[in-house]
Write a structure and sequence with these properties.
The chain has 259 residues and is an alpha/beta fold. The protein has 13 helices and 8 strands. The chain has an 8-stranded parallel beta barrel with strand order 1-2-3-4-5-6-7-8, surrounded by 5 helices. The longest helix has 18 residues, at 188-205. Bound molecules: 1,3-dihydroxyacetonephosphate.
């Protein structure tokens, strides 16, 4: 596959943390840590809880910050009797650009199946936003040596029925479950090997030009110290950061380590 340069994408997934007041404070810290120029060098996305989307949209737009607004979840239907859910269109109206789907926490705690991940990713793309589709194996699967096959099957299921022009725009995130919130990050080599394997799978499903354009992130216990090492690897196009994105200074340092 021909080597090309892809713009890095660094996402902060706040999970169920920060009230809207704390969200605003965190963005102030981030602003004090990174410059406007820094934010041009990579795509930086914040995925706050739904309750902070409007506040952050207002700040990002009023202050013309070069930060994209992201969401952590949505339902695949357009509207209707789905108590507690949020539609892709509602997120689009708030100028959300990226939506996480298939995070292991949603797969395990909320029974999100491969089929739902696929339907949701399609609904996000149809609403002109970009899905950040998460995949990753458990410790048990890695110990059994089945991690490459397992992740490839998750990628295939998530992309089922996707048109080639849509696939080019998506983001895939490799988040091994054993590395999430444990402090036990994958090595940069492990991340590279899996991201390359994911790209190969996309190439088999579509073609090498398409696979070359898809951005593939690593996530799992990323911090200020290790962030730079992952993104030096050719197939690792960015990071999906949990804990270290909750602090604006730390997340700013992660961004600076990558760009
Ligand atoms: P941590 O960075 O806290 O390990 O979380 C990773 C993650 O799940 C991001 O989506």
């Amino acid at each position: 596959m021909e080597k090309i340069t892809r713009k890095k994408i660094i996402c902060g997934n706040w999970k169920m943390n920060h009230s809207h007041y704390e969200a605003v404070q965190t963005i102030q810290q981030l602003k004090a840590t990174v410059s406007e120029e820094d934010l041009i060098k990579a795509d930086v996305v914040i995925h706050p809880p739904f309750t902070s989307l409007r506040s952050l949209q207002t700040i990002f737009e009023a202050e013309k910050l070069g930060i994209f607004l992201g969401a952590q979840h949505c339902y695949f239907e357009k509207s209707g009797a789905f108590t507690g859910e949020i539609s892709p269109e509602m997120l689009l109206k708030l100028h959300v650009t990226f939506v996480i789907v298939g995070h292991s926490e949603r797969r395990t705690l909320f029974n999100q199946s491969d089929e739902i991940v696929n339907k949701t990713a399609k609904a996000i793309s149809e609403a002109q936003m970009i899905p950040v589709i998460c995949v990753g194996e458990s410790q048990k699967i890695r110990e059994a040596g089945e991690h490459f096959d397992f992740v490839a099957s998750q990628v295939e299921a998530a992309l089922s029925g996707f048109r080639i022009d849509t696939v080019k725009r998506i983001v895939l995130a490799y988040e091994p479950i054993w590395a999430i919130g444990t402090g036990n990050n994958a090595t940069a080599e492990d991340a590279q090997d899996m991201c390359a394997s994911i790209r190969k799978k996309v190439s088999e499903l579509y073609d090498s030009d398409t696979a070359n354009l898809v951005r593939i992130q690593y996530g799992g216990s990323v911090n200020e110290e290790n962030a730079g090492s992952f993104c030096k690897k050719y197939d690792v196009d960015g990071l999906l950061v949990g804990g270290a994105s909750l602090d604006g200074v730390k997340f700013g340092n992660v961004i600076k380590a990558v760009i």
